[in-house]
Structure formats: C-alpha cells, structure tokens
Amino acid sequence: MTVGIRIYPFTELEATARKEGVVTRGDDLMPPKFYVANGLEACIRRFAHDAVAGWDNETGSRS
Questions:
Q1: Could you list the residue range(s) of the whole structural domain that residue 53 is in?
Q2: How far apart (Å, rounded) are the C-alpha atoms in residues 50 and 30?
Q3: Phi/psi-derived region of residue 7, left when phi > 0, alpha when psi is between -120 and 50, beta in every other case
Q4: Element (H, E) at 48
Q5: For the residues of 13-44, what is the DSSP string, one character each?
Q6: Count of structural domains within the chain
Q7: Other CB atoms closer than 10 Å to residue 21's CB: what's the count?
Q8: Beta bridge partners of 55
Q9: How far apart are CA 43 and CA 25, in angstroms?
Q10: Number of Cβ within a 10 Å radius of residue 15
Q11: Taking the model in full, what pTM does it have?
C-alpha cells in the first residue's frame, strides 16, 4: 500500500513538490515517488493502518 499521489516529471504536482522540498533538482522520478500535502500524512497513515487492521495476508480476508 502506498500513501500519496505519484509525482510524475514535468507536471504541476512536480512543481509543487519541488517548491515544498519534497523533491530536489537531482531526484529521479522514474522510480515512484509520492506526494502528501503537509499536515495530512499522519492522518492518512492512521486511516490506512486502520483499514488493514485484522487483515489476514494468507487468506486475503479479514480475520
């Protein structure tokens, strides 16, 4: 599971990420790099954690 929006080269999101220091001039964006707006990461991670709580990886269902 990933958190955030994938940053693609030459997009408005890349420009925003550069302004906020999420990516720098030398960063290679071909491998996935993800953007999460400031202040939302903890909330999203908590939501994602709660969403998979009790998930059984062997059966692919809730335990």
A1: 5-62
A2: 30
A3: beta
A4: helix 41-52
A5: HHHHHHHTTSS-TT---SS--EE--TTTHHHH
A6: 1
A7: 7
A8: 62
A9: 29
A10: 12
A11: 0.66
CA atoms within 13 A on the CB side of 8: 2
Give the type of residue at 30.
M
Structure token digits, residue 40: 């939302």
Tokens of 48: 């994602």
Burial class (CB in 10 A: 0-12, 13-18, 19+), 13: middle
CA distances to 28, 31, 50, 53, 57 from 22, rounded to whole Å, are: 12, 15, 26, 29, 32
Residue 19 CA to chain centroid, in angstroms? 17
Tens-place pLDDT, residues 4-55: 899 999 999 999 999 999 999 889 999 999 998 888 888 888 888 888 787 7
Which helix (H) or strand (E) segment is 55 a member of? strand 55-56
